[in-house]
Amino acid sequence: MARALLLVDIQLDYFPGGAFPLVEPDAAAAAASTVLTSFRLSGEPIVHIFHVATDSDATFFLPGTPGTDFHPSVEPLAGETVLEKHEPNSFIGTGLQGILDGAGVTDLVIVGMMSSMCIDSTTRAAHELGFTCTVISDACAAPDLRLGETTVPGASVHAAFMAALDGSFATVTRSTDFR
Question: Where is the Isochorismatase-like domain (predicted)?
Answer without folding.
Answer: 4-176
